[in-house]
Amino acid sequence: MVRLALALLFLLAACSTSPLTGRSQYLIVSDNMAVTQSAAAYNQMMGDLDKKKQIETGTPRAEKVREITDRLIAQAVRFRPDSANWAWEVQVINDPKTVNAFCMAGGKMAIYTGMWEKLKATDDEIAQVMGHEIAHALADHTRERMSIAMTSAVATTAAAIAIS
């Protein structure tokens, strides 16, 4: 019973309110852990894509994406000043069939060429998409998903142990 009470106290302590959105969040993963693990996953992904020659560099499109995201990052730092310390990075992934973009904890971003190939997106539309993705990172959505996944894994393991 004491263990259950401590577990519930721990879970309640992990509940917080986002200063950016006012939304309740469940955060047991530290900001540092989310940024570190996101950077590792990003580097692995970009390394794999680079080997396949799927990272677009030195093109007008890649430069335009960098210009757009640099302007967005300047605004992001106004909303979340600690993000000025993030190692912001953006890559264009050459995959014309994929219409997607993302921004991980710590500012690791990518956008797929399918945005242009399938949607014929304008610069303003690219800015909207990337701004949306940056907002996810600023609002700690990566941390929140990691926290939920970690808690689910622990609960599943505890349930398996209890059943056996």
State the gist of this model.
The protein is α+β, with helices and mostly antiparallel strands and 164 residues long. Helices cover 59% and strands 13% of the residues. Strand 5 (101-103) and strand 6 (108-112) form a beta hairpin.
Question: What does it look like?
Answer:
- This protein is α+β, with helices and mostly antiparallel strands and 164 residues long.
- It has 6 helices and 6 strands, in the order αββαβαβββααα.
- Strands 3-4-6-5 form a 4-stranded mixed beta sheet, with helices on both faces. A two-stranded antiparallel ribbon has the order 1-2.
- Strand 5 and strand 6 form a beta hairpin.
- Helix 3 packs across helix 5.
- The longest helix has 23 residues.
- The protein is globular, with a radius of gyration of 19 Å.
- About 6% of the residues have low confidence.
